[in-house]
Amino acid sequence: MSVAIHIVDGPLQDATNYGAQNSLAQTATNIGATLVFEGVVRALEGARHIRALEYEAYEPMASRTLAGLAQDILATHGLISITVEHSRGQVSVGERSFRLSVQSTHRKEALAATDEFITRMKCDVPIWKSPVYS
Amino acid sequence: MSVAIHIVDGPLQDATNYGAQNSLAQTATNIGATLVFEGVVRALEGARHIRALEYEAYEPMASRTLAGLAQDILATHGLISITVEHSRGQVSVGERSFRLSVQSTHRKEALAATDEFITRMKCDVPIWKSPVYS
Amino acid sequence: MGTHCYTSIVIVRVLIFGELARELSCKEIAVDVVSTAKVRDVNFALAAKFPAKSQLFQTARLAVNHAFTSPDSPINSSDEVALIELVGGG
Amino acid sequence: MGTHCYTSIVIVRVLIFGELARELSCKEIAVDVVSTAKVRDVNFALAAKFPAKSQLFQTARLAVNHAFTSPDSPINSSDEVALIELVGGG
Question: Any chain B CB within 8 A of the CB of C17?
Fold first, then answer.
């Protein structure tokens, strides 16, 4: 069981280690499901077109809260691993600002954990976003 | 809106185009969420250790049923795109036999669509799996 | 001056897969049905041929020419029939 | 022979972020509270300072030293206080 949190400056790059290919999976043979959710900046914020979103993270509380939430979700849903990546600073339309990667034995807990993680993150984690207009 | 179905011989390789990086995302600026679910072969099938699973697809019905299901899920949940990859033949423990990639405007429909797709796939799509013991 | 009933018989081949195919050691079951048979008559003929699996065969979904069909659909010997049950892809 | 009440006053600085910081054109609000104050007194002091945002400030969650705390927790001038409201990461 493992938890990893990364706050990254600017947009997220491609994930290098997905699901079954990563080092954990090579030893954990009870992984039956991997789920990768990515949040992408959309062109419309409400009714207005934006160029980017600016993310402001209150550190170290943001990382700590993400880690606490991830630990709690890992335990509650019986996951094998959970990795969280979140941008701070400017992320343009079409770029990714958030990635949640989950490994579990079955699909149900991966889906339920993802849903609960994002809902609670939006409520509790001190990361604010502001629109950047063209 | 797009649907793609791939039946692949053997285990799935790494996805080359994930989420916001693919060509569709460069034009579709209303993508706010991408979700990639992968099914991985586990070491235990029931109580017995296995070496691999052997997947048998009844074609062209398997591809047709997957395409019909994907179209239906795309429309019902208002997705932007859905891509399905499924193995046939032998897939070893730790390797991937299934990948569902979804793009949507919000996270909720991506999660709901993934859950419904897999539930219905397991019921309706003529792909059988058999354990291969060591 | 009796009445003569002519009912021609057709042979329908039903493809089977997965565990069921291994258990019965075959990939295809041939059953006889009347030429006016519906899909559900194929189910009944399968059940009659394998009494130990009567329950499974009576309720199993049959695909005709690669699509699920109603039990009321007509069936011909040239149709490709497949038993789609116990699937579990993914 | 009257009674003398000595109540010392401390200054608590509250960090604010996002839309609220832009709206108020500041990143930090200083409020005076008594030295025996609890977290909820900081809420009340914020609400008194910005009557137009009274509702928000009275109910806003305050983090003390990077953790959410109870409204009953004590507060000191050396504490780092942050208003964690209207977040929406992801």
Answer: yes
Q: Which residue is associated with the tokens 């080092």?
A: A23
B121 touches chain C (CB under 8 A): yes
Domain with A50 in it: 2-133
Which pTM value belongs to this model?
0.89
Please give the pLDDT value at position B25: 47
C66: left (phi over 0), alpha (psi -120 to 50) or beta: left
- Out of C82, C87, C90, the one facing B39 most closely (by C-beta) is C90
- Yes or no, beta carbons of D88 and A122 under 8 Å apart: yes
Please write the tens of the pLDDT for every residue from D27-80. Answer: 999 999 999 999 999 999 999 999 999 999 999 999 999 999 999 999 999 999
* CATH number of B57's domain: 3.90.1170.40
Q: How many domains does chain B have?
A: 1
Other beta carbons within 10 angstroms of residue B111's beta carbon come to 23
Q: Do chains D and C touch (3 or more CB pairs under 8 A)?
A: no
Q: For chain B, what is the HEC assignment?
A: CEEEEEEEECCCCCCCCCHHHCHHHHHCCCCCEEEEEEEECCCEECCEECCEEEEEECCCHHHHHHHHHHHHHHHHHCCCEEEEEEEEEEEECCCEEEEEEEEECCHHHHHHHHHHHHHHHHHHCCEEEEEECC
pLDDT digits (tens, 9 = 90+) for A56-111: 999 999 999 999 999 999 999 999 999 999 999 999 999 999 999 999 999 999 99
Q: String of b and e for A5-37 (b: at least 16 CB within 10 Å)?
A: bebbeebbeebeebbbbbebbeebbebbbbbbb
- Inter-residue contact C44 to C12 (CB < 8 Å): no
> Which residues are within 8 A (CB) of A123 and not within 5 positions of it... i.e. 6 or more apart?
D87
What's the whole-number mean pLDDT along residues B77-94?
97
- Say if CB A72 and CB A84 are below 8 A apart: no
In angstroms, what is the C-alpha Rg of chain C? 14
Residue in B with minimal Cα distance to A111? B111
- Contact yes or no for B58 and C15 at CB 8 A: yes
pLDDT of residue A17: 52
